[in-house]
Amino acid sequence: MGDRLAYLQAALDKLDSHPACQLGLVSSIYETPAWGKTDQADFLNLACQVHTDLSAQEFLAYCQAIEQDLDRVRIEKWGQRTIDLDIIFWDEERIEAEELIVPHLYAHERAFVLRPLSEIAAAYCHPILKRTVADLLAELGEQKDIKIFK
Q1: Average model confidence (pLDDT) across the chain
Q2: Are 46 and 30 in contact (CB under 8 A)?
Q3: pTM of the model
């Protein structure tokens, strides 16, 4: 909600401004139908690579601080929000903690995650499913409702 493009750019800027983080590859921005709770405006999605010396938990905390700085309010699951930062993969690690599960449990089922991710990491192999991002996206079939945002 709000200025979707400005929120995405601000989040990328904040990720890149942390002294222990360096923004790597960034995908195109995609406009996708709302997922989960569908009676809301379309979402903008992108994938990015971040190189960091932070632990996964420290990085999660930083992502959550960015969300708060960008006026994210958690009212209802999958409801409207200004920004949502998710950790999809953490190298080839598996993390199962109360606050963080990586690989993301549902990434392989969501074209709005896999489509932008395939731009920057098509050959990345899911550490549990042992399938590449490109293969996982292909399994979901054609996604006509996901379009590059101008």
Answers
A1: 89
A2: yes
A3: 0.87
